[in-house]
Every structure is written in C-alpha cells, then in structure tokens.
Amino acid sequence: xxxxxxxxxxxxxxxxxxxxxxxxxxxxxxxxxxxxxxxxxxxxxxxxxxxxxxxxxxxxxxxxxxxxxxxxxxxxxxxxxxxxxxxxxxxxxxxxxxxxxxxxxxxxxxxxxxxxxxxxxxxxxxxxxxxxxxxxxxxxxxxxxxxxxxxxxxxxxxxxxxxxxxxxxxxxxxxxxxxxxxxxxxxxxxxxxxxxxxxxxxxxxxxxxxxxxxxxxxxxxxxxxxxxxxxxxxxxxxxxxxxxxxxxxxxxxxxxxxxxxxxxxxxxxxxxxxxxxxxxxxxxxxxxxxxxxxxxxxxxxxxxxxxxxxxxxxxxxxxxxxxxxxxxxxxxxxxxxxxxxxxxxxxxxxxxxxxxxxxxxxxxxxxxxxxxxxx
Amino acid sequence: xxxxxxxxxxxxxxxxxxxxxxxxxxxxxxxxxxxxxxxxxxxxxxxxxxxxxxxxxxxxxxxxxxxxxxxxxxxxxxxxxxxxxxxxxxxxxxxxxxxxxxxxxxxxxxxxxxxxxxxxxxxxxxxxxxxxxxxxxxxxxxxxxxxxxxxxxxxxxxxxxxxxxxxxxxxxxxxxxxxxxxxxxxxxxxxxxxxxxxxxxxxxxxxxxxxxxxxxxxxxxxxxxxxxxxxxxxxxxxxxxxxxxxxxxxxxxxxxxxxxxxxxxxxxxxxxxxxxxxxxxxxxxxxxxxxxxxxxxxxxxxxxxxxxxxxxxxxxxxxxxxxxxxxxxxxxxxxxxxxxxxxxxxxxxxxxxxxxxxxxxxxxxxxxxxxxxxx
Amino acid sequence: xxxxxxxxxxxxxxxxxxxxxxxxxxxxxxxxxxxxxxxxxxxxxxxxxxxxxxxxxxxxxxxxxxxxxxxxxxxxxxxxxxxxxxxxxxxxxxxxxxxxxxxxxxxxxxxxxxxxxxxxxxxxxxxxxxxxxxxxxxxxxxxxxxxxxxxxxxxxxxxxxxxxxxxxxxxxxxxxxxxxxxxxxxxxxxxxxxxxxxxxxxxxxxxxxxxxxxxxxxxxxxxxxxxxxxxxxxxxxxxxxxxxxxxxxxxxxxxxxxxxxxxxxxxxxxxxxxxxxxxxxxxxxxxxxxxxxxxxxxxxxxxxxxxxxxxxxxxxxxxxxxxxxxxxxxxxxxxxxxxxxxxxxxxxxxxxxxxxxxxxxxxxxxxxxxxxxxxxxxxxxxxxxxxxxxxxx
Amino acid sequence: xxxxxxxxxxxxxxxxxxxxxxxxxxxxxxxxxxxxxxxxxxxxxxxxxxxxxxxxxxxxxxxxxxxxxxxxxxxxxxxxxxxxxxxxxxxxxxxxxxxxxxxxxxxxxxxxxxxxxxxxxxxxxxxxxxxxxxxxxxxxxxxxxxxxxxxxxxxxxxxxxxxxxxxxxxxxxxxxxxxxxxxxxxxxxxxxxxxxxxxxxxxxxxxxxxxxxxxxxxxxxxxxxxxxxxxxxxxxxxxxxxxxxxxxxxxxxxxxxxxxxxxxxxxxxxxxxxxxxxxxxxxxxxxxxxxxxxxxxxxxxxxxxxxxxxxxxxxxxxxxxxxxxxxxxxxxxxxxxxxxxxxxxxxxxxxxxxxxxxxxxxxxxxxxxxxxxxxxxxxxxxxxxxxxxxxxx
Lengths: 375, 375, 393, 393
Hints:
Chains C, D: Belongs to the acyl-CoA dehydrogenase family. Chains C, D: This is Acyl-CoA dehydrogenase family protein. Chains C, D: Keywords: FAD, Flavoprotein, Oxidoreductase. Chains C, D: Its cofactor is FAD. The complex is a heterotetramer, with two copies of chain A and two copies of chain C. Chain A is α+β, with helices and mostly antiparallel strands. Chain A has three domains: 112 residues, Acyl-CoA dehydrogenase/oxidase, N-terminal domain (Butyryl-Coa Dehydrogenase, subunit A, domain 1, Orthogonal Bundle), CATH 1.10.540; 100 residues, Butyryl-CoA Dehydrogenase, subunit A, domain 2, CATH 2.40.110; 153 residues, Butyryl-CoA Dehydrogenase, subunit A, domain 3. Chain A is 53% helix and 17% strand. Chain A contains ten helices and ten strands. In chain A, the strands form three sheets. In chain A, strands 1-4-5-8 form a four-stranded mixed sheet, covered by helices on one side. In chain A, helix 1 runs parallel beside helix 3, helix 3 runs antiparallel to helix 7 and helix 6 packs antiparallel against helix 9. By secondary structure, chain C is of the alpha+beta class. Chain C folds into three domains: 83 residues, no CATH class; 121 residues, Butyryl-CoA Dehydrogenase, subunit A, domain 2; 144 residues, Up-down Bundle (Butyryl-CoA Dehydrogenase, subunit A, domain 3). Chain C contains 13 helices and eight strands. A four-stranded antiparallel sheet of chain C has the order 2-3-7-6, with no helix packed on it. In chain C, strands 1-4-5 form a three-stranded mixed sheet. The radius of gyration of chain C is 22 Å and the shape is globular. At the A-B interface, helix 7 of A face helix 7 of B.
C-alpha cells in the first residue's frame, strides 16, 4: 500500500482548492444560493475539467480515476458545495461511461462533461430500505413492441429536483435494467423537496413512461455488476466528501478551543477537552486513510475486495463523523446548535452522507458478506 | 418503590461490618488463609446468625429475606471473604429450605444454619454454556428399584473443593431433579482447583452413585421453579457481593487520587481523572440501587418480574464492574496490576462474579425473554 | 425496603393516567409522541387543564397553590403525564421563577405574579446566559445602574428559551461592577414590552426556534422589581438552578422515547434485527438503573456516596441516556432522515417526500437532543462540580 | 497511490512467512497462539534463528548488523512473524539500548555490547521508572555520585521488564541533584552481578512475573559505562522512547488476536451469535483503519494533521484497539474464565478443571492487556502531549 500523491494529483488538488476558496467563501457555506449562481459554478467546474475527470477522452474527459475524484470531492465537502457533483459526475457519468454505447456516450456523456447536462440517479424506492436487488424493486418495465413502459416510484433522488435527466434502476421480469430517462418524459412527474442539509431532492413517479431501447444502458448481469461497482464508487465518493467536511469541523473546533474563554481560561486549557480533541483528530486521520483506501480499491481491486474495503471505509468514516459532530457541537456549546454557526451545516451534511446508499448496519452487512465470500 | 432501611436491617449491617472489619483486616484480603482459620470464621458467622438468616425458625434460622442477606453479602464482598456463604447459605440453604421435607430440613438445614455443614451447588456442566434446562444435562439418573443411580460430570462447583455435601441438578427422562449428595458418596470423585480469584472450585464426577429417595429434594416442574428462583436469588446475591467489592475499589481509587503525585500535582487535580472518577461513582451508585432492586424483587415479585429485574441488575452491575475495574487499574498505573496491590484482587473477584451462573449476554437474553412474556 | 409503590401511590398513578387519557387533546398528543413542534397554544391548552385540576404547580408549597404531593407523587405525575404524551412543563414561571418568588419575593410581588403564572396568563423568560459566557454565569456583563426609583439596564442576554411566548423577563444583572464574579449580581423582573427591550429569535440547526436573544438598551426597571436584596442575586439564582435540575434525569421522557423506538422498529419491519433489539434491551436496563437511583435518592435515608452531588449525577446520567435513546431512534430511521420538511415538523401538512409517518422528525430530534448535555450547566461543568465534592470530602 | 504492495514487497512477505513456517518451533508457536507464558529459552531459540538469518535487528542500521530494510519491509516482517505465531522481540537490548549505543555510544562501547546483544548472549534490563514516579520519569531519585573512576549508584527502580532474564542493566540516574527535572540526568550501563544490585520479581495480578524491582545499594559503576555526556541522559532516553513507540500500534499482534477470536467463536459453536459476529466485524474494520493510517504515516509525503504526534496517536489507538480485542476474547470465553491454573498458563501440564483448551488464559490475557494503556507512557500522557502539539501549533 502506498499513499503518496503524484505531482499531477497535487496540482489538481491545488486547482480545486483555489476554485472552492473563491466560489464558496466561508460566509456562504450552508446558505441558499440562486439557481443562476449554481449554474455558473457548474460551468466553471466543467471548464476546469472536474466534471469530466473520470470520463473517457473521446467524450471530452480526462479518463482519470477515483483517486483523482477523491481530491475534488474532499474539497467540495470542505466547502459544503451543493452542486450535483456526486449524482452527475460520479454516479451517472461513470455508469454511462462504463455501459453506454458510443451513441449513448455522445448523446449524454459528452454534455455531462461539458456541464450542459445534469443527470441524477434514481435507485431507492419508498417501500424498502437499501434493497438494491432487482427482484425487490417496484419500478417495473413491461414490453411494448420493441420498446418498454416504465411504472413505479423512485425516492430519495439526490439533486433530482432540477436534473435534466435520470439514470433509473428498474426490474424487468426480475432482472435489473439501467435506463436513462429525460426529466421531461411524458408520464414522469417529480415531487421536489429539501434534504436535511438543504440540498435538493425529489421523488419520481413514472406512469407508463415510454422507454426506447436506445435508453437502456445495460440489463441483467451486466447491469448488476455495474450497479455494484457504482455503489462502491459512490461510497468512496461519500467518504471523500465526509473527510472534507470533518476536516473543517475539526479546524473550526480547534480555533474555537484556542480563543473561547470560560471560567477565566481558554477552553483548550481544559484537559478533558484536550483529550477529546485528540480523539477527534485521530478519528479524522483514520477517515482520511480509509477514504484513500476506498478510492484506491475502486480503481484497482476486484469486486469482492473493493466491496469489502469500501464498506469498511464507510463504517469507519460514519463512526468518525458521528464522534466529530457530537464533539464539535458540545465544545461549541449552545452556539454550535444555531443556524448561524457553520458547525450545524457540516454536521447535517455528514448525517446525509452517512445515510445515502446504505447506513452503518447496511455497510457492516456488506463487509461481512464480502469477507465471507473472499475467505 | 421504597429504598429505606429499617432499624433492624441497619443493626444487622453494623454487626456484619464489625465482624468483617475484625476478621478480614485489609492486609489479609486476597491472601490465602489456612483451612482452620476459615473453619473458625465460619463458626463465628453461624453464631452471629448470618448463615441461617433466611432459614426457617424451626431449623434454627431467622426466616428473613434476600434484603437482609444483601447486607451480609455486600460486606463479604467488600472484604473479599472466601467463605462459602453464597454456595451454602444463599443457594443450598434456600433450596433445602424451600423444597425439603421436615426430615430433610432437620438432616441438612439445621446443621447448615449452625455452621456444621457446608453444601455446595453442582449445576454447570463442561459441555454446555449456562444451559440450565434439564433436557440438556448430561448428568442423568436411572432407576434402580426404589432408588436411583447418578452418572455424569458437574463443573465449576464453587466452594466445591472441601464441601461436605452437594445439591446436584440432574435429569431423569428429561425432567429436572434436585438431589443432595454427600461428598463421601461411593462413586463420587472430585477434582479440585482454584478460581481466577483464588477461591476453591471443583469438578465432580459421578459414576453410578446410589441416590436414595430421601436424597431427592424435588423433581419435575417443582424442581424447575425452584431452580429458576434460586438462580434469581443467586444473581441478587452476586450483585450485592459485587457492590461491596466495587465500593472498596472506588474508595481505594479515591484515596490514591488524593495522595499520589505525578508531574508535581496530586492525580485528583487532573480533570480527565476527575471526570472519569465521577463516572465510576455514578456506576457504583446505580449498581447499589440495582442490587437493592434485585433483592426486593426476589423477596416480593412473581417469577417473571423477578427474573426481569434480577437480570437487569446483573447486566447493570457487570457493566459497572467492568468500568470501575478498568479505571481503578488504569488510575493506579502499573502498581494496580501487581499482586501486592489490593486492586487486582477486587478486579478478579468481580470478574468471577460476572461469570457465575450467566454472563452479560445470558442475562440480556433472560431480560428480553421475561419482558416478552410479561408484555 | 419495598419493591412496589403503596396502594395509595398506585391509585394516584391511575388517577393521573386517567386524567391524561380523558383530558389531553389528541392532536397535541400526536405531536408530542412523534417529536414534532408544539405551539404556545398547545402548551396553554394543556396547562389550563392542569390548572383547573389543581396540578399545574407540583413543585410549589401547598399554601401557594401546590397540590401538596409527596416526592413520589411528583415523580409519578411526571412519569404518567409524559408517558401519556402530554407536553412537558416548559414555562419558566412555573419551574424557575415561582419557587424563587415564593422563597424570596415580597408579599406584594407574590400577589402580583404568582396567580397569573399558575393560570398561564403570564409567561416568563429567563435572562441568565450572555454571549461569550455560556455555563460561566458569573462572568456576565449586563449592568443595572440605580437612577432614582429605577434601574437602568443595559446588556445582551442569549439562549433565552421561549422568549417569543413570553410577556415578562427575569434577569441577572451586575449592580456592582467592582465586585468579584458571583458578587454584585442582582435579580430583576421586567415586562418584555418595556421600551428598550428587543427579543430576536435564534434559528437553530434543526429548524427550531425555541431560543432567543434579548437586547437591553437603557431599559428602565422600577426598583420594586428587585428580588430580595441588591447584590445577592447569585444566591437566588443558585436556588433556582437547584430547582431546575430536579427532574432533569428525565425518566418519563426516556420511557416515552423508548416506547417510540419499539413502535418504530415494529412499524419498519425490523423486529428481527438482533442488533437493534439488543440496543433496546441495553437502554431499557440502563433506564431501570437510573430510575431506581432516582427513587433511592428520593428515599433519602440510604447512604449515598455523593451527598450533595445527587442532582448533578442524575443530570449527567439522565441526559446522556436520553441522548443515547435519541441516537438509537436516529439509527432506526435509516434513509428516512435524508429528506427534511419544516412543515411536516409542525404537522401543518404532510410532506409528500416523507409520507405520513414521523421518521423525518428523528433527525431533528437527534440534533435537538445534543442540547441536553449543554443546557442547565454543561455536563462538563456538572462533572467538575461533582468531582470536587467527591475528591475533597 | 497504490492499494497493493509491490511485487518485490509481496515476495519479501512470502519469504518471511515461509521462514516462520519452516523455522518456528511448534511448541513455542502453540504457546504464543494460545496466550500462554513463554520462558527465556523460548525467546532465545527464536531469536537465534533470526540472528542466523540476519533478521534479528531490523531497526538497526545496516553497518551495525541491520538487514537494511525499507519501512514497509520492517512492517511486513512484524506482521508476518506475529501472524505466524512467533514471539515478539522483547529484548530491550535490541529494541532500546541498541539504537542508543549506535547513536551515542563510543566505538569501544559498541564493540563491547552490540555483538552480544545480536546473538542474544547478553540481555539488557531497563532501569527507568521509580516508585512513586510512573510516567513522570523526570522526577526520579536514584543518584550516581562520582568517586574517582567510578560512580556510586544508590536508588530503587521498578517495572523493569524481564530483569530475571537479564545479565545487564541500563539505567537513568541523577548526577546533578540541584538541576531542574529532566536535567542532571545521566545514562549508565552496569552488570547485574555488580555487588549491591538486587533484583526482586514483582508478582502480577494475572500470575505473571515479567516485571521486577531493582535495588541499587552503593553500586560501583566504572565511569567508562557512561553513555555520551554526563547530565545529558534525558536526551538519550527521549531518543530511546521514540524508538520504543514505533511499532507500538501492534497491527500484527491485533491481527493475530482477531484470528484467535474467530477460531474460538467457531470452536465454541457460537458462530450464530450475531452480537459477537458484529463485534468482530467492527473490530476488523477498526484494525483496517489503523493499519491504513500506520502505512500512510510510513508513506510520509501525505499531509498528516498531527505532525510529530503520529507515534503517540498510533500508540493510543493501537493499544486501545488491542484492549478491545482482548476484551472480546474475554467475553467469548464465557464461564471458562472462572477456573484458573498457573500450570496451564505455562503449558506445563493440562489442568483437569480446564481441559486441554486455552480458554483459561483469556482472563489472564485480558488482565495483562490493561498494561497496554499504562506502559511506554500512559495513554493519558500521550494525549496530553498530542493535544499540546495540536492546540498550540
């Protein structure tokens, strides 16, 4: 195992950091911004090549891996970026990149890389909890001539409120299919709302939506494997994003401990807070290691090993996030619980990251399963 | 719920405390003493009426309850008494008291109360873990005329190395029987050894031991109920004993924090130790409450409620004991790990108490089961 | 020693239980049980019923309108009302100011304020904490300067709970700037509509706004609004804080939330999840131990290892246990914590993303529960105080 | 970044694994895997094999007999030897004194001592701690007074590991009584058979006796046995303690014990217990995170949030994780921890009460594991040191 970063990776990180520091100044983090502003930022990220980082060069991307995306995601997490990087660049982009025909890639992937198309991922359903087997999905396809009709409901679609299209997972006779559905498809209605951390989310209702064969990315085992792979990729991305958010929480707590006085001394002089702060830093550093392990596993390892290490990383990061969040709030006192203080916004971002595509229990099961298979 | 202590209960506690302070001076706690000395102490306890506390008056006892025995057990735990109070006075005494015919009571119970007969309890078996159902026991009775033959092995018989007799649990055609077997019965061999905390323990091997009907205390459902009841009683007793040991550990740690200097200040000035010491005291006080609840439940409640509260008490006390033991050792530093320091002897007593007749997992199951039944 | 409550106590428990069943409005009950937000009207509706029954001020002496209950009765009342889904008594007039007025107020002050408190006609806000001070009350900077028959008060109070529900304010102010911390502090009463007072809500991270800031700009307060003696305010504040902490173990609230955990586990088809079942069992047992300890302390003639520190220890253990329960609720919620709707939190309409269940409130409740180890003196301060008693005695 | 080790590193790992398989005595392996006590002869037997292979001093520079490994190779060596059931390298001569002699010793001292250390012919005891001092080394009271060509040493050292295996002692002594703590300390070497030295074993609560007291009564030590300069001993001691802590994360030992947990769960028919399975999974994941962090620190060009505090953080996390694993082993043992036999701990005979399995060692191992957060500077001291770096930087 080698954690050293190449010169190119370092340069990329620096570029992203400059972009984030400029576009997400501290006072704006966690605050609502206009759709125009977000569109503008998205364009800048495309120009910097961030959206197409893992997209093939033929579609205008850089053909890099999760290790490179990790650097981007960490910075976006550090700045509480509400941009649809996870849904569009990490999830949908990589699925179309891996599965799409060259036609599909030209149609959807190239505009994604250019920042012109935002594609969200519709996987969860209201009834079941993280049940990602096709046989449990109530979103179903039925044949109609050479085409399909899609019916059912998808929930918890992150960045789904103003996406231009969706990658949808549905079942057809018990087999998984992954499809691309434009947001303006006839028969698709979306109900929009807000996440706990004030990002956009939607429930999609498909009522006999016509799906042409050109919209099908993959089916059956090929789709299953791609879904497993993209879930691992997403988990690695969530780890990186969380590390960014935790870094900032630890930093803010450190600053607070150094300046805030209570009973005549700065908080940092109290031994119980010193020791607990050490534990926060240990948790953060372990998370940083595990986010890197997850990214490397996605880039390098076979499916079983990748699943094992990625689920270990999610558990490890989620536990660290819980500890760091609680301590950051407690040490900031009542102030840490206000909307005005940034602490709460980071805490909520971490809470959502913990629950997207599998919570701790789910990841522990994944880990145990992949260990059993590997052994 | 009322935790107030009557004048009589207070007087009894004071008497026991005086006895213990005299007979178990601090420098002797945890040290081996001669069999003669132990026999002498046992005689004194009988004279004080402690052994017969819960024995009926017709057999020379005081006919009192678990609440009274709790006071005795707490003091014995505080002084690390190695006397067979639990096995003889609490377990065997109460079984014979509850189940025995008047003949059996005169034969065994009266001498128990007088300190002339030490009777240990043979329940566990080597194969299974806390499996107290008759059907799982490999100690079996077979009919021989009007009598029985007993064969099988009993393990973890506390105070079994020099007991005069045993109450033995065995199965006969799937039904439980509780018997009294003298230590010198033909066909009974005992292998003796030491517990983790240097008390005496034995494995008993029964090879076709003749059991007359006069030795049978109870069978079938009556025996089952009595076994459940005595297990609850034993658990309440272990809680009381543990509270005594924990009290002493907390006291010793308090003294140490007040006098031991490190880096120019007494340990008690370090805030992390202060806070952790507070948590030790909270754990101790909760254990004290729960030991009382367990004793009252044994004396008052029906079988289901008693089982529920007693298992709650054991979990609560075991968790507290673990916390207090770890902290006492850590705060004493390397010194706390030496045989010379009393801390380790208390820690080991608590470890054995945690594991006798059910560990934490076992008690959690008991609690969940009795809650389900009660609900 | 006796495991069971007396028949009389049990009869009282039944009476309270029946009263809650008969009188508590079902919409209010639904909000409480689902962890949603209550309006002032919800509280007043319930408190008025308690007033009519004579039960609104269990902590007050009988001659001032208290019901004359034993500690056990008070305990049972708390438990049964909370288990029945009734709102807590959050009014600072009842919990905090009342006992202070009764102990230290003039007859005129008592006549003027106590009846309106009992009838929920007048709600009092507490002005203790200040920016930058937190649990360190003694370092406050709000001043009151004598000017004829008035004090002129200037300063800035924060973390004032429910000030937007209130018409009056009790306040700690510095009347002797040269005195040491904890000295030179006075305890003043004022109308919130006195010129110069401005109340600003503080928005909290879970969307709630129970807390406020209070700005005091040359506020003229009549001298007769002083409680007790000038510069003795710290004494009255300590008396008040002692009252605040009793019951802070929150046994009833914990029991109610544990019922909620069990219900949610069932509703979500997770009864077979052995991890969650074990956690529930562990927390149930911890709650039994805490409850037994609370009752043992009420009993009093037992030796208690930490005399004087009982309240702090119950606060520490009680709040941390409640936080553990809220964290388990948050775990049980799974992915349902991702969407959030403020409307759903107020039961003003059902959010279509969330459906008609309460799961989205579980994230907010978890976030909110973090306050338990912060307010009323942080748990760090409680442990400091307790350890001093334990290691110096 | 690269997840896998290089083919060269993997080949090295295989080489070490094969060496352990071929060379480690099966009785020694059985003792290690079952947590039983080892004799000096067990250690010497294994160390001699390592010496013959040139692997006995991985931490020493190549020119002094080290194998010239990269940090990754040292890491793999530790992991593979421990996973394979080999004894740890406990000899203080190899781990502690060797690096100090190499850095600060005279050529004569090096020639005199290093070869014997490598051949396990000479075993060194460490005389640092004193009664009443513990982790606070600077407050020591053992003195050395110059008398011609000798120092006269008087004092009392404790917690001297394995002194009963040793023939030599390195020791911190006060050579300037008037100096501040941490100054006026010197670093002396002596033969344990020098008149005036008495080693007394300290019996430990789990029955072991790896620790000793050393009494020094007018012990005459030649001046040439001084390391470096007089009164500069604290510098050498700090250098030594820095060396001691590397590898203290104990990844290999933790992995070995986790294998043991899994084996015991299977052997005891408890594979269906979901609680134990979840705990194993949780600890496995924590170990992966610790291992990754250790390797990341070895890699170095990564930013690490706590530069300089890496060793302390690994010590804290590594020892606490190992304690958790030993506690899980202790849980898995169930009622089998009740009986205890010192003979069984030494594999000198099988105790009939315990049978032929290792379960009785689990209580002793659990008790023994408490030392992990005490020795090498308590975890409290490590957190103090780390927080200073984190909050002052």
